[in-house]
Amino acid sequence: MSSNQQAQIRYQVLDRCFSDFSGKKYFIKDLVQACEKAMEREYGHTNGCSERQIRNDIQYMKRAEGYNAPIQRYYEGKPVYYRYTDEHYSIRNSELSTTQKKQILDALHLLSGMEGLPGLEWATTALVKLGEGFDMNRETNKVVSFEENMYLKGLEYFDVLYQAILAFRVLEITYQPFHQDTSRKELISPQYLKQYNNRWFLFGYNHKEEKVQNLALDRIKEIGDNRKELYKYADFNYEEYFDDIIGVSQFPNQELEKVVLQVKNLKLLPYIQTKPLHSSQKIDKELNQIKLQVKLNYELEAVILSLGDQVSVISPPILVENIRKKINNMQSNYECSDSA
Fold first, then answer.
1. How far is CA 294 from CA 250, 259, 289, 299, in A?
2. CB neighbours (10 Å) of residue 90?
3. How confident is the model over 133-155, as pLDDT tens digits?
4. What is the pTM of this model?
5. Of 8, 58, 127, 339, whose Cβ has the fewest other Cβ atoms within 10 Å?
């Protein structure tokens, strides 16, 4: 959960407390407890609910760049309690500040710049309408460019899959893997979309295989609804799934491996430090080695090969052998034949 999401929950709780004119008085400790209960209920923890944080939240809500909320301190002896001066006020009914309007418009500008991704066409329309409503229309050149492939196959299915995930719909997907001449039909409860290396992948529960499966969108041939099967939600943590791998693929019962790469070109190290190969990456500056804790897969090998002769694999042995075979195959592609 992001810090912005946590803050929004606190603002909503504080808003309810400040709007309570039933006679209950909310001192700072009461506000902290109310926020803690909400966080515990929503996310199972009470992080970010200290007295200092709540006081900062109150100051933000009172400022013009926040909600310009009419929050008043009322003294009852030494301690003070907080309440709105206007019992009809709520941040849910307040107008957006100039800062908030600008933040929304900036976000829409970014979204509208993500060309080629179906489902985001609304951002351009919303940008125009909101600009008119806020009296903040502006002509701007594109100042942010996202890495994208306008000609990538399968993007036309993105919005269909996204909406199916939100609606808990079972899909019948005609799919043709690489290196296979025929397609097959998969019965999928879609759950997650992931982008890697400019390709999109759908993750979902395969009803026939009874397991979570990923399908590349550029290999999908057709999508249809299946109204007979009940949606099956796999109890699967996708964030944890990607923690231990580079890319999207892993195999059942795989163990983590300690991967050690020997850096041959020391000029590579600063580049690798600023753009880590994986979140587990550690740099041994004395030995000039890159160390990873990952599961072995095709994407890892592709990343290593992309570094060319600037690195060599030290361990594990199976990865050394896999890379050696691929390099030997590459070399044979460039060997001159006797007839040449």
1. 10, 7, 16, 11
2. 16
3. 555 455 556 666 666 666 678 88
4. 0.62
5. 339
